[in-house]
Amino acid sequence: MPQPKVKLVVTGDDFGYCERRNQGIVDCFKAGGISNVSLLVNAVSAEHAADLAKRNHIPIGLHANLSEGLPVSRDLKGSTLLNKDGFFHGKMGFREVLQCGHLKMSEVEAELRAQVNRFCELIGHEPYHMDGHQHVHVVPEVREVFAQVLSDFGITYTRVPIEPGLKFCTFLPPHLRDFNAQVEKDALESMEVFHRYGIRWPDVYLGLSTMGKNMSVPNLKRALGFTLDTSLDDAVSSSLIQCNDAVTDSYRPVTAELMVHPGYPSQPHQGGCGEGPDDFSQSADRLHELNTLSDPFVLNYYRQQGIHLCAFKDF
Fold it and tell me: Would I find Hydrolase among this entry's keywords (predicted)?
């Protein structure tokens, strides 16, 4: 059997958000559309998700959440992480509070540790990888705390959301292009921090340009084309090389992660992380992603191009 050109982790994010999202993610895994999941331990259906992962032998990591819903830690009453109603500040609110210098990193650390411990309670082992919901793990200050927590728990892999070719994706709306540009800037500055703590990440990251209605067979092929064109010499974020003192000339496939959000759309008032489901989870885009990822044409394309789906634990 020929060596694969690419080892691709297709990660279904937001596992645990609601039972419908959970079931859709499991169905996508069974169909071969994803190979890995990332669990929101503060979500209302996290226990349901954990049971499904164990029953279906789904490789699983932690989707650390500092921006949506209720905290896991019970020691955060009056915390700078929370608004007056006791919820996290939200995707943009979290960043605004951080930028104003009002977030205490000791509270960030306490919540991250509580989420790792909760993951272990639910799953029975430590996460194979850990990333951040809405990319909170790469923002200034937080990334240092995040890296320290991963190092302390022996979690080897994370996500560095820098997508090749993203600047050419003019079909994305301006507000999303601006947000993605900031995410990539933060991620680029995080690489030195993660490397210093011995944390690794795949050579290539994909997913910012293929979310929701922007996920299509042609767009997936466009994004994956950057991965197929990547060599070990010019990999976007080849932490596997960085973390080795000696690099041999022996063949190694390019490693990549594709971030996705499949599922059956949430029903109103069902799901979320304590505040109910958001528009993102209730959108028909969730089912659209599930159907596209499971499309036989996509799965056949992987085989034809030498793309082997795997999980972080396989690295």
Answer: yes
9 bridge partner residues = 257, 310
Q: What is the pTM of this model?
A: 0.93
CATH architecture of 6-235+252-314: Alpha-Beta Barrel (3.20)
pLDDT per position as a tens digit, 73-118: 998 888 999 999 999 999 999 999 999 999 999 999 999 999 999 9
Instruction: Give the separation between CA 180 and CA 163, rounded to whole angstroms.
Output: 9
| Conformational region of residue 272, where left means phi above 0, alpha means psi within -120 to 50, and beta covers everything else | left
Q: Where are the domains of the chain?
A: 6-235+252-314
b/e code 126-137 from CB counts within 10 Å (16+ = b): bbbbbbbbbbbb
Average pLDDT for 19-39: 98
Q: Which residues are catalytic?
A: 13
- Candidates 251, 241, 271; CA nearest to 46 is 271
Return the closest-CA partner of residue 204 out of 251, 259, 154. 259
